[in-house]
Specification:
The protein has about 70 residues and is an all-alpha fold. It contains three helices and no strands.
Length: about 70
């Protein structure tokens, strides 16, 4: 995430992977909550917040293609 902020481009991040990470963090967090097991829910809630931050970077720093200079 540091590279994205310094370059102001999400070219180095994969959107599908970030989205899948968010969905899985939600699923495991809910599963851990229903089990009453904080050892399952706790780390996944943290991962949920990190995933939200990653997806927010896609909104703040969209991946623009490099400009093509004429020859």
């Amino acid at each position: 995430m540091g590279e994205v902020i310094s370059t102001k481009s999400t070219a180095s991040m994969n959107f599908i992977l970030s989205l899948a990470n968010l969905l899985l963090a939600i699923e495991w967090s809910v599963y851990g909550y229903f089990l009453g097991n904080m050892f399952v829910a706790g780390p996944n809630v943290l991962g949920l917040f990190v995933s939200i931050a990653q997806l927010a970077l896609f909104y703040v720093y969209p991946n623009h293609p490099a400009p093509v200079l004429p020859p």
